[in-house]
Design goal:
alpha+beta; five-stranded antiparallel beta sheet; about 375 residues; Serine Threonine Protein Phosphatase 5, Tetratricopeptide repeat
């Protein structure tokens, strides 16, 4: 039974190869016959031959461009200017450097020139490949397709040097094809038209697109909501400590120093003003220069007092801001120390009463901190 199945599969494979070879041969014959008919100016015979070559679906980008070039020549020669311009535009979108030989009939050059002008504005067909590793996939990205030729993608791929396989998918913008898993995939990606002709080739047998991965399926980890609380969170990295000059203690100390300086010079100013009042009250017993010198010192000390108290205010404001914006770790540490101190103080005020059994009776013991 198994041998019979294997025999049938071999016959099917041979039949598929034969059909593919026959289609390729028919396409080659049709295109060659169309060339000969055009060389002999037999345009009516060439037209259906070119249609057969296009619909065979086995042309590569270069042959597809030639089919549209010859179609434009045939349609132009037959007076079908609109159809000729469409064919020439498709040719130039595949081959932007295409040109007609000198001496070509004006019936053919007119639609070609119109198509060339349009092709310059729209640009050629452009496509690229994007790959994914896990799961392995290749995506055809159509960047520009002014004549809407691309209708899908065909992928030829080999997994870990095994025989080549192929997959197809339809699409006009982004066509993603998921591939078989393996450690190395050699890929050739073709953008194809509605008949299967190759519009753009990405990768080749000699220089394929390579996708590498472990070949293993990584299962997704799903945590139930009930168990989410049991998942241990990664400890947060503590924030970097502030430099000493941005410490609240530094600014608080500067506030105290500035306030102390301001208080000292403020007291001196007060004393000097009292002395000045005394001199003025007894001006006959003192020289005027003494009062002038004392007034000068009082003004100087008052100026220093004002600067010191202003600086103290600035430092005090900075201390408050730095305290309110301190890192969370420092805040937690301060709260922890405050709580511990509160508990210690509460413990000092705790009074304990406990019964103690004794021989022939008992006693009550009163304990605590007093």
């Amino acid at each position: 039974m198994c041998r019979g199945v294997q025999h049938v599969l071999r016959l099917v494979a041979l039949a598929a190869i034969a059909v593919s070879f026959a289609a390729t041969s028919a396409y080659a014959d049709a295109l060659a016959d169309a060339r000969r008919a055009i060389d002999g100016s037999d345009y009516l015979t060439a037209k259906p031959l070119l249609e057969d070559a296009l619909k065979a679906g086995t042309a590569g980008p270069a042959d597809l461009a030639e089919i549209y070039k010859l179609t434009g020549i045939v349609e132009g020669a037959l007076g079908n200017e609109k159809q000729a311009q469409t064919a020439f535009l498709r040719w130039l979108s595949l081959d932007p450097r295409g040109s007609l030989p000198p001496g070509t009939s004006p019936k053919i050059t007119r639609p070609f020139d119109a198509a060339a002008e349009h092709a310059k504005k729209k640009g050629p067909i452009v496509a690229k490949a994007e790959t994914d590793e896990n799961p392995p996939a290749v995506t055809l990205v159509v960047v520009n397709d002014p004549v809407k030729l691309i209708a899908g993608a065909k992928v030829y791929f080999s997994v870990d040097r095994k025989p080549e396989q192929s997959l197809s998918a339809d699409g006009t913008k982004r066509v993603k094809v998921e591939l078989e898993r393996g450690k190395r995939l050699d890929v050739r990606l073709h953008a194809v038209d509605e008949y299967g002709n190759q519009v753009v080739e990405l990768g080749s047998r000699d220089v394929p697109i390579v996708i590498t991965s472990s070949g293993e399926v990584k299962p997704d980890v799903v945590v139930d909501r009930k168990d989410a609380a049991l998942v241990k969170k990664q400890p947060e990295e503590p924030p970097a400590p502030r430099p000493w000059y941005l410490s609240g203690w530094t600014w608080g100390g500067a506030t105290i120093v500035a306030a102390g300086v301001g208080g000292y010079f403020g007291y001196r100013t007060y004393a000097e003003l009292n002395d000045l009042d005394h001199l003025n009250a007894n001006s006959l017993a003192h020289e005027w220069s003494e009062a002038q010198a004392l007034e000068h010192r009082a003004n100087r000390d008052l100026f220093v007092t004002q600067i010191a108290m202003g600086a103290a205010g600035v430092f005090a404001l900075g201390t408050v801001i730095l305290y309110l914006t301190r890192p969370e770790s420092a805040a937690r540490e301060e709260r922890s120390e405050s709580t511990a101190a509160t508990r210690r103080r509460a413990g000092m005020r705790t009074t304990t009463i406990a019964p103690v059994p004794m021989q022939g009776g008992g006693a009550v013991v009163l304990g605590g901190h007093f």
